[in-house]
Protein: SagB/ThcOx family dehydrogenase
Amino acid sequence: MAETAEPVGLIEALGYGVRDVPLPAFAEGAAFALVAARHAAGRLELSGDPVPMLALTAGHDAADAAWRLAARAVDLRQRRPGHGVGAGPSRAAAVRAAVCDAVARRPPPATARRLTGWEDAVPPPLHPSFDGRLDCHLFDAPDGLPLVGAVLRQGGGATAREIRALGCALTPAGAVRAALDGVLAKIASGGWTAPAEPVEVTAETTLDGTVAEGELGDRVKAKVRTVLDDERGAVIQCSLLEERPGELGPWAEHDVAGCTAPAEVPLACPPSRVRLSRLFHENSKIRAGHRTLPPVDIDRLAPTVRQALARPYRDYGRTETEYALPTEQQKQALLPLDVAVRRRRSAAPMAASALPAADLARVLDLSAGITGFARTSGGTRLPLRATPTAGGLCSCDLFVLTRRVDGLRQGVHYFHPGRRVLQLVRSDFAFAEVAAHTGYPGRVADAAAIAVFAGAFRRNQWKYWERGYRMVLLECGHLAQSVVVAAAALGLVAHPLIGFVDDYFNRLLGLDGTDDAVLYLVLLGKAAS
Ligand SMILES: Cc1cc2nc3c(=O)[nH]c(=O)nc-3n(C[C@H](O)[C@H](O)[C@H](O)COP(=O)(O)O)c2cc1C
Structure:
């Protein structure tokens, strides 16, 4: 925040604090919230209590946004309704900002010219994939300064929503930038509204691309008052001599009273570190009214597809190295749920003894086992499992790496839920090598078996597209938790692990790592007494 150090210092001197506000992945820029000093950034906010926002500013340029927040802080301290406030590194910059702020706080004239070509001078603060429309209008303002109204609209029909913001500057391009900064601020604070009446457009005009700010001169008749002017910066209040009564309506700033700044920001990493996941999350959202997934009627799918849906698992073939899971001891008492859940501990010590095959079978039955069938109206029979599966598509496969399991060879096995067997996939590897490809070789060396969860993304994504990826991860979590709880109910230790070398495990299981990929491990072992 080097370039924001001065305005932030000024804000702190006024007795407030500043917090970063994350923008959604489709928006580009910086946003800051003005908060009480005790909530200032840099302090750990482990309580998770909501942090009330006092004001919010945003902009493509972090320093501009922070200076504007300093002006808002002064505004709050010395409420003078109808005045513009400007803050900046110099008195001249603060006067310019104050006058422009005062102009943009007055209701705009009724008509405007639609601006074209503004994108060449001022980059829109939105990711190109954003499916909305952004228009800029140059109001035929009687003031000597250009006033731009930006309108961002998304969606259609009953779900259409809109953001409007006014911006004033010394040049039309500067005014576009100021208006877009206002749009960003409303995006950051959730200031979307239902669409208002369209702006009455009288003509089109191409933007003069001069962004550099000139001098204010006496283009606007205004009275200015110096609030502060020293080495920390300058703050100016301004009132326009010419009154223009009326309401700002949809152009008014979003009132952030009641909005909360993210409480966890001091613990968060910079958005650049999580750029891909933010982008993915944004693009895997279900949005009301559009981008809705196509409905799928299973009975109308091709017979081969219906067959695949009825057997949503792999099959490594009937070989001599297929183990039918034992059925004896199925009556073995399980610990009551509350006892099992309270006793469970991931890092509990594991015994060096072998895992009974019956225990492993029980864990598999209670997690990935088939427990029933659903039948579509057309008669397709779809297997249902002990664990919920997204769309009933069973998109998470369960493998078991056996090391010390009574009656089973060491190796990678696939749990075939349809036939309730463990199919040996391979045994030509050393267990020490497996342990070495995790972040916890010592701990893994203690395990009698490892449950390996592999996402079968294509099994889900044909239906759920980008959202399918989320669903497979969730399904994997459900399945793994079933393994953990079943193991706990048998008095076993179950230790989940995400710290492993992906490509090694994918190769070990023969998965391509893209459409089918190992997601998660759970170490299993008998509890050391
Ligand atoms: C998604 C997930 C990933 C995990 N990955 C690891 C891991 O890589 N290494 C590890 O030692 N524990 C891992 N754990 C176990 C947690 O460290 C453990 O659950 C946590 O310390 C709380 O302990 P408890 O499970 O005994 O309640 C993971 C747990 C979850 C839910």
Q: What stands out?
A: The pocket of flavin mononucleotide is lined by residues 345-347, 439-440, 496-499 (CB under 6 Å). The mean pLDDT is 90.
